[in-house]
Design goal:
mainly beta; 3 helices; single chain; about 200 residues
Amino acid sequence: KKLPLSYPDYGSVVLNCDIKYQQTGQKKKILGSIDLEKLKLMYEAKFLDPDNDPDVVVITKKDKNKKPESDTFLEDTFMDIAIHAPYAQYKTRDIDLKFNVNVRAKKEFAKSVRVLGKIENIEGRVEQAPKLFTVVNSNIVFTGSKEINPLLDIKVEHELPDILINIAIHGDANRPKLDFSSEPLLPKKEILSYLL
């Protein structure tokens, strides 16, 4: 029932699924749950330019203007899958984050996939040499909207010998808002000078 999976430089997981597939004519229903135990992601983009990264697909304006072909997945598939990944980790040379995933992928016939739920309890470190940032008690919330554009509730701290800088990232992923504060209280300009 549990399947260990691993791929060098990308990650590892113990996969446990309970998926039910039903088909009547062309109509397909996929229901169930996927548990990703011991999920550890290590993928790091190899290139700063996505055009040179073979793992990235770039969609151009020309691609967007193409007349869409008939999409049988879109038209004929219903899906409701719960995805859980307790104690997940994303780790690269500069990042070490731990978090829990509790999301649901839902799709009605003739509609696009919607994602609901949370990536929660995000904690860990992000290093932008020589600065070290600590992510604390943060969450990303998927609202099930047509466009996948989660709400952000991310708290980051940067500690200096006599100053603690707090960065709050909120709003949605397409238009995030940043708020800066510090202990002791400093003007925003001075806080930014410590971060740059």
